TrEMBL record, chains A, B:
<keyword id="KW-0804">Transcription</keyword>
<feature type="domain" description="HTH hxlR-type">
    <location>
        <begin position="3"/>
        <end position="116"/>
    </location>
</feature>
<keyword id="KW-0805">Transcription regulation</keyword>
<dbReference type="GO" id="GO:0003677">
    <property type="term" value="F:DNA binding"/>
</dbReference>
<dbReference type="Pfam" id="PF01638">
    <property type="entry name" value="HxlR"/>
</dbReference>
<dbReference type="InterPro" id="IPR036388">
    <property type="entry name" value="WH-like_DNA-bd_sf"/>
</dbReference>
<protein>
    <submittedName>
        <fullName>Transcriptional regulator, HxlR family</fullName>
    </submittedName>
</protein>
<keyword id="KW-0238">DNA-binding</keyword>
<dbReference type="InterPro" id="IPR036390">
    <property type="entry name" value="WH_DNA-bd_sf"/>
</dbReference>
<dbReference type="InterPro" id="IPR002577">
    <property type="entry name" value="HTH_HxlR"/>
</dbReference>
DNA sequence: CTGAATCCAGATGGATACTG
DNA sequence: CAGTATCCATCTGGATTCAG
């Protein structure tokens, strides 16, 4: 007790673990892009996202969506249209990612210029 | 021209690409944790980070640090101590990730409670 | 101490074809 | 349309050993 430095380091380790927790959820080549797509349109269908996120395959989209659903970031709703369509939506919890997404968008733009644009 | 919907969708695709750009840089199991470690201490040595980021191997740390350096997020300084030590520091550009790191830390904490804590 | 080198299992992800 | 199934190459990352 009283060892401020050790305390600080413990605090820091906790923080790092928290960041890791976030990244575990948002990991995978496409997850953030998918959330970003759904987020901006409010509600989005499978084929729409497939089109929004350039380069993703339906196999990957399906897999990533499932993981996001398990982590309670999005909800899946089957619509009784012909043929069937499926809607994805952010949960309240998923919605809390908005700030991060927005920041990442801005940062990505600046970074691209920094690296390539010179 | 005048097709507002198509315009909006193009804008959206750009945004998604920007998020992808960010994630490309921050990808890898440990990158954010490493940045987080350096960020909080201002300057950090190899062995310190190795200790901060639980579970990482020196092989991975070395690799991820190199990538971060290439992307100009950190700088590497060799100190002429005996034995040699190496210091890592955020660049000005890397520093701009602070907000994102901070948000991810907070979000990760909330998320963990949401999922496990229940 | 700070890596680089090697070995290797398992995860990731693309292409393609198929189903309800 | 919204997936699932299969095949397969590549990537990831851990363990361990070695080097300056």
């Amino acid at each position: 007790m009283g060892c401020k430095i050790a305390e600080f380091q413990q605090e820091q380790k906790k923080r790092i673990r928290s960041v890791q927790d976030s990244m575990d959820v948002l990991n995978g080549k496409w997850k953030i892009a998918i959330i970003s797509s759904i987020c901006c349109f409010g509600t989005r269908r499978f084929s729409d996202i497939l089109n929004d996120v350039e380069g993703i395959s339906n196999r990957m989209l399906s897999k990533e969506l499932k993981e996001l659903e398990v982590n309670q970031l999005i909800t899946r709703t089957v619509l009784a249209t012909q043929p069937i369509t499926v809607q994805y939506e952010l949960t309240e919890h998923g919605d809390t990612l908005q700030t991060i997404i927005s920041n990442l968008t801005d940062w990505g733009q600046v970074h691209r210029q920094k690296i390539t644009g010179k």
